[in-house]
Specification:
mainly alpha, 347 residues, 15 helices, 2 domains, 0% strand
């Protein structure tokens, strides 16, 4: 008997309601009809880079984690740039991401991998449950009227950009330059929610299954150093060592040299050295992920025993008591191991 996740109504993918979103994925194929040239390809690469930077450095490292500081005008421009990636407004994005870190890899997590790969990749944004802005999680920025306005009308800047691209370069520029770069930036961003919790290496003990991946880091301008990030969330850099390429951080460093951003937070030396998995610490994140599967298996075994109750009177009672004792002792051991988890570092 397989154990499956019973998805509530508000977590079911709304396929009809997401038809416009799904159709956008088909627009780049129109390039076979419009044709395209080097100019369109360069525009695609340029817009992909801009979108990825504003999402990673702006929406993520600034609005979600406040890992550096900047003035109010620059802050608005960073938020404006983030809307060009068409991932809703800065308040919606950052609030949901803060919720993700609070419940990372548990069922409460907005894009928990425990609910399936498709769900963690894009299914979670296609349901009704996560449509509202969680303003109680983003009170610091929600107090600013310009950000509230931009969050409400987040579609205006990318719409204006699309019109501008079409007027400047025609249909091929719109199809390849605007829409292809948009779809690529979407799914490379989504990979951090899905594959970064499934593939790669773990350096630090965390209470989730985050991993580091050079490939994903290159695609997402540094976000692929995901285990680093979950270990020390308030850092402006996610590549903690010189060989860990982090393009968004390099750009932030350049902006800091001309005074556009300031006080970039980085992990201190003792943080980099502590809690290494290779030093023998309990890998509590992987333990908890497998513990959930183990509990499900035990519950499945108990259900099978209940089914066999009518055929095995005294034998059933004996096995049930043994199984209950096993669950109790395993739970006690899990609680002891959980105490070894490192305490989170404050933002």
């Amino acid at each position: 008997m397989a154990t499956t996740y019973e998805r509530p109504a508000d977590e079911r993918v709304q396929w009809l309601g997401n038809i416009p979103y799904l159709l956008i994925h088909l627009v780049p194929f129109a390039a076979f009809f419009t044709g395209f040239g080097l100019r369109d390809v360069l525009l695609c690469l340029g817009l992909y880079g801009a979108r990825m930077f504003f999402i990673t450095a702006g929406y993520h490292r600034y609005f979600a984690h406040r890992s550096y500081k900047m003035g109010r005008v620059m802050q608005f421009l960073m938020a404006l740039g983030g809307t060009l990636a068409v991932q809703k407004g800065p308040l919606w994005w950052a609030a949901h991401h803060r919720h993700h870190h609070k419940y990372s890899d548990r069922f409460e997590d907005v894009h928990s991998p425990m609910k399936g790969l498709f769900w963690s990749h894009m299914g979670w944004i296609m349901c009704r449950k996560h449509e509202p802005v969680r303003l109680h999680l983003i009170k610091d920025f929600a107090a600013l009227p310009e950000l509230r306005w931009l969050d409400r009308y987040h579609w205006v800047p990318p719409f204006a950009l699309g019109v501008g691209v079409w007027l400047w370069g025609g249909w091929s520029a719109l199809v390849v330059g605007f829409f292809l770069s948009l779809v690529l930036s979407w799914h490379c961003t989504y990979l951090i929610n899905s594959l970064s919790h499934l593939i790669g290496r773990r350096r630090y003990v965390t209470t989730d299954t985050s991993r580091n991946s050079m490939l994903l880091a290159l695609l997402t301008f540094g976000e692929g150093w995901h285990n680093n990030h979950h270990y020390y969330q308030s850092s402006a850099n996610q590549g903690f060592f010189w060989w860990e390429i982090d393009i968004s951080y390099y750009v932030l460093r350049a902006l800091s040299l001309v005074g556009l951003v300031r006080e970039l937070r980085t992990p201190p030396a003792h943080v980099l050295a502590d809690n290494r998995i290779r030093d023998g610490h309990a890998d509590i994140g992987m333990f908890q992920a497998n513990w959930a599967k183990a509990v499900a298996s035990l519950e499945n075994a108990k259900a099978q025993l209940e089914h066999a109750k009518v055929h095995a009177g005294e034998y059933y009672e004996e096995r049930r008591r043994a199984l209950d004792a096993m669950v109790e002792s395993t739970t006690s051991a899990a609680q002891q191991i959980a105490k070894m988890s490192p305490k989170p570092f404050p933002d």
